[in-house]
Amino acid sequence: MSQFLRRQWTRIIEMRMERKLLLVFLLLVTMPLTFISYFSYVNYAESTQRTAIRYSTNMLEGMMGRVDDYIEDMVNMTSVPAYQDDIKFNLSRSNAYYAQRKQIGDNGNAAAAPAFDQLLQIQRGIQGNVSFINNIKRGATSVYIFDLYGNAYSQAQSGGLRQNLADSYRAWESAASESGGEAVLIGTRKYVSTLNSEKYAFTVVRKIIDKALQPIGLIAVDADMTVIQDQIKTLDNVTQGQTVIVDKQGRIIYSADRSQMAADIAGDPMFASAAGDRGSFYGELAGERQLFIYMTSPNTEWKAIAAIPERALTKDSRVIRNVTLAATLATVALALLISTLVSFALTKPLRKMMQLMRTVQDGDFRAKFQVRYGDEIGQLGRQYNRMIARIEELIQDIFRSENRRREAEMHALQSQINPHFMYNTLETIRMAAELNDDVDAADMIQLLGKQLRYSISNVNEEVTLERELLHVSHYVQLLNRRYPNRFRLQTRIPPELLAYPMAKLLLQPLVENATLHGLDDAKPFMALDIEVRQKERYVEITVMDDGLGMEQETLERLRDKLTRGAPEREEGIGLINVNERIKLHWGQAYGIAIESEAGLFTAVTMRLPSMAVARVEQSDFGKSREERGGEAG
């Protein structure tokens, strides 16, 4: 891991300056902005959640308070018969009536049965009071008054009465008998109304006791579930969630989902998690993460549990997050643009100086740094210009001190271009003249004269590539007279390069070297190819033969000689001569390169300056290097 970190750190250290500046700018802008945005979003989300919990809890508390008030009103309604003598009187009459009927029924004496109009009077008396109780409080679905024999007195409302009153009475009477006269709250149950529709209601029941504290009947008040429905609907619209009310046994009192009404959810994890009087927790409901907020009524011990989808809680937070993210990205993009412009503006002078240094490395000391400002870059530029000027002065001093020696070496090197060729050629001419006494000797003498005139004339004379190629052609013609049809010369030169200016006697030594060291007697002839190519900054001239080639060891030794130069009378002197002349005239960036493979080929490539540079250099040809440098300065 440490090695990996070191490698990454090394990569950062070796990055270009503008990239380092860009990285620093981005880190300085992005990191604080990202941290601020992140913590702002987290704090806002947490604050939103706390606010939602507090607000929803307050709403739950208010809703349960209203439900408690509603139930308290129902309890108060069940206490009305205790203060209505008329209800107690008619219930006593009803009990006596049905007791008499039961006794008559047991004895079988039908003639002693009480009059039916007595029952009608009882019914009118009690139902009138039932209507009065119904009008006390809006929201009571139905009020039922029973005598001790389970006979019900009620008045139909818009929703109808219960069909199964006998079953309901038995459940209610059993619950009330254990209460000691107190009102009993019975959770939500489903029933079928006289209109044949399914209904749900929770009920408050209480015993009716006379003045002697003896039970004479039972009153039951069914709740109107629309009252609770309105309360919960208002809460759900605000929280965008779903609220249920359950009793302490885990049976649902109310749910917006009617299929869950009166269901037992005591084993549900949601109900188990809602421990204590109030609180909140997170859980899953219908495959979605929810925030559950609950509170317990101190009066009824019912729990109201509100399930709020987390997406509803974080809706505003997501908007803030998206806006913050968009603003952060826009700021980072703007910072990236500004950082890029600033970094490139700051490093542009350095890149310019690097280009100038590469130009100086190629041998051009005329490149100067333009100083515009007095900052550190400007001061560096001034020192750079002074350094280049001093280097150029030192070079000029060296050239002045060694110019004559160099020129003497050039003449000496040129004079070493294989004089044996001249002697052998003259001997061939002599032998041809003795044997033939015809035109062949004259032609060879003419070609030799052209060779001598071209070679012996002013060494510093400027020539074109076309003239140099013509000289090589004459040389190959002489070779073919000496060795009949052993050499075939082929040239590939773009027409626009025929006028390329160059120094004399650069090509002929390369061809001569190929014929002397590469001729393969096993082949009928040697192919000599001269190809000239124009590159972006160079002109390359390649002389290639298909002769003996060289072993790798010989090739490396020859390359080493070209690099360090060679003393007199060492083999390869022709190539070394040409290489030193090129470097002496145009600089170390130019010269000769050799490629070879034993038994296949040898290729010698001269790298010379491009056409434009060559014309400038050739215009100064013949001057000393310090003279050319002085004029350029």
TrEMBL record:
PANTHER family for this protein? SENSOR HISTIDINE KINASE YPDA
Name the record gives this protein: histidine kinase
One function term, GO molecular function aspect:
protein histidine kinase activity
> InterPro entries in the record, alphabetically?
Bact_2-comp_sensor_kinase (IPR050640), dCache_1 (IPR033479), HAMP_dom (IPR003660), HATPase_C_sf (IPR036890), HATPase_dom (IPR003594), His_kinase_dom (IPR005467), Sig_transdc_His_kin_internal (IPR010559)
UniProt topology in membrane: Multi-pass membrane protein
On the tree of life, the source organism's domain of life is Bacteria
One Pfam family hit = HAMP
Reactions listed under catalytic activity = ATP + protein L-histidine = ADP + protein N-phospho-L-histidine
Mainly resides where?
membrane
The protein's location, in the record's own words, is: Cell membrane
Query: Keywords for this entry?
Result: ATP-binding, Cell membrane, Kinase, Membrane, Nucleotide-binding, Phosphoprotein, Transferase, Transmembrane, Transmembrane helix, Two-component regulatory system
